[in-house]
Amino acid sequence: MADGVEDVYGEDSATLDQSFTPWTISVASGYSLMRDPRHNKGLAFTEKERDAHYLRGLLPPVVLSQELQEKKMMNIIRQYTVPLHRYMAMVELQETNERLFYKLLVDNVEELLPIVYTPTVGEACQKFGSIFKHPQGLYISLKEKGKILEILNNWPERTVKVIVVTDGERILGLGDLGCQGMGIPVGKLSLYTALGGVCPSQCLPITIDVGTNNEKLLDDEFYIGLRQKRATGKEYADLLQEFMCAVKQNYGEKVLIQFEDFANHNAFELLARYSSTHLVFNDDIQGTASVVLAGLLSALRLLGGTLADHTFLFLGAGEAGTGIAELIALEISEQNGKPIEENRKQIWLVDSKGLIVASRKDSLQDFKKPWAHDHEPIAELKNAVEALKPTILIGTSGVGKQFTKEVVEAMASLNEKPLIMALSNPTSQAECTAEEAYTWSEGRAIFASGSPFDPFEYNGKTFIPGQANNAYIFPGFGLGVIMAGSTRVRDDMLLAASKALVSQVTEEHYEKGMIYPPFKNIRKISANIAAKVAAKAYELGLASHLPQPEDLVKSAEKYMYSPVYRSYR
Ligand SMILES: O=C([O-])CC(=O)C(=O)O
Ligand SMILES: [Mg+2]
Q1: Which of 97, 108, 232, 374 is the most buried (most CB within 10 A)?
Q2: Are 395 and 423 a contacting pair, CB within 8 Å?
Q3: Does the annotation mark 54 as catalytic?
Q4: How large is the angle between the packed helices 183-194 and 474-484, nearest 10 degrees?
Q5: Contact (CB, 8 A) for 449 and 465
């Protein structure tokens, strides 16, 4: 769909219905063509195009290939030693030449992912106001109350298929970054395109600004958001309700709304409130759950046994912790046929007040209650490890350095191969580093983290840490949902995505101790995930794009956006 048509507007021609758009797009002048990031090719405009589109004289004589432009840009990026400068160079490229940006990202995914995504995107959000040059995405603040539908109409694209929206209250593990959380929806959607092949014109990043409680930002002269404390209660709920209705009214039933980095209390409530009326997906609850379940299923190849044979201990009982825990319990129930309540009992969660136990039930938030099992209270993580003897330890606390030497050693003394996942992002918030996990377990740990760590050598052996990040899941998952025209997201689709990801881990990976496939194969991985998710949507009767294509992997591959330049007539 995204490929093949030779057109002055590239793949976006179908979206340019002038009766809808509030302004007209003209390519009469080569000058404006060059300044439109979606159509610009820089020095790669051919002689013929320079003649046909009034570009003569506006460019030096040389004509470069896209490959040579790519090589030049990579040289420029690599010259910056500060990651934030690399991030800024990438944003600059995205805002001047979109196809070249995606060509770089697709071809150099392992090198550039830590720049446009975690960990650097976290720092970018913290400093967003100071580095802000190009507004990206759509900002909806309390000032726009009552006018959200109008604002959606200011966005130039009509065929939006995925929205990633945040209110900035819990950006990665960095807390409330208010309006500056916009870096996250922008980064996530860049991955939708680069990793999942969803066309950029179908992607819309949105930040809802209801204020921030971050005093540092409120005092920052360069802060870009509303200078007020967060709205809560009815004021908050009403704005979100208006937003959700406006999206449906403007883009129809089949736009996927991905909630990202909302604080726990709102995340669970929004998902519960809108999952029966809208096509919604919470990346932090559901995407993270799916990628971690995949890692666990994959690790069983190294650990032996089934999920039911393991005991799980989580540090952190928020969106990620409880989301993962629930998907594990669901998968065990699919395997052993027992009620989910029964299977939850081998999964324990520790929050900031200690082990979640039945005696705390009355004071627990609803999403923690299913995990309040019978046990005496335990305050310290290390004591919980010793008492419960987990085989798998998962950090989703958002707080760095919580897996101390004592904790890792306790895991290593209980298990031949302790599985340790330090999932909090960015790297500064990881519960422990790869080096710590391998060293403190004397090279026996199987380790994965949310943000990337370099391979680590210990006693002459090289360990390759896995990156258990929802970036493996959401791009392919979203593509599958879009391809099928699914009207809802269901847990079975998350399980399908997990299994599709596991199927991409090969013997060769296991031999290196890897439980996830490398990101360099991500488009193939995403096509497989998309196919399995779409197949599940068809099976559940949720798909509206009928009839079901025979070969869903091929359909996914065909759908994928190619960043190669178009020729213009
Ligand atoms: O963005 C990431 O790297 C993963 C994620 O959703 C989070 O940490 O909130
Ligand atoms: Mg997130």
Answers
A1: 97
A2: yes
A3: no
A4: 70
A5: yes
pLDDT tens digits, 436-468: 999 999 999 999 999 999 999 999 999 999 999
Report the alpha-carbon angle 340-345-346, nearest 5: 110
Q: Calculate ∠ Cα 466-467-468, nearest 5°.
A: 105
Task: Give me the residues near ligand 2 (ion), CB cutoff below 5 Å.
Answer: 260-261, 284
Query: Ligand 1 centre from 430 Cα, in Å?
Result: 12
What confidence tens digit (pLDDT) does each residue in 83-107 have? 999 999 999 999 999 999 999 999 9
The pLDDT score that the predictor gives to residue 104 is: 98
Residue 326 alpha carbon to ligand 1 centre in Å: 19
- Give the residue from 445, 378, 450 showing the smallest Cα distance to 411: 445
Integer CA distances (angstroms), 320 to 16, 178, 282, 314, 423, in order: 39, 21, 10, 10, 9
Probe target for ligand 1 pocket from 166, 171, 283, 291, with the most ligand atoms within 8 Å of CB: 283
Tens of pLDDT, residues 468-477:
999 999 999 9
Per-residue pLDDT, 16? 34
The protein residue whose alpha carbon is closest to atom 7 in ligand 1 is 172
What is the value of ipTM here, to two decimals? 0.99
Q: Dihedrals φ, ψ of 440, to 5°? A: -70, -20
Q: Say if CB 188 and CB 197 are below 8 A apart.
A: no
Q: Which atom of ligand 1 is nearest to the CA of 173?
A: 8
85 alpha carbon, distance to own chain's centre:
22
Pocket of ligand 1 (CB under 6 A): 118, 172, 261, 283-284, 425, 450, 469-470
User: How large is the average pLDDT for residues 137-146?
Assistant: 98
Q: What's the mean pLDDT when you consider all of the chain?
A: 94
For residue 513, what pLDDT is reported? Answer: 85
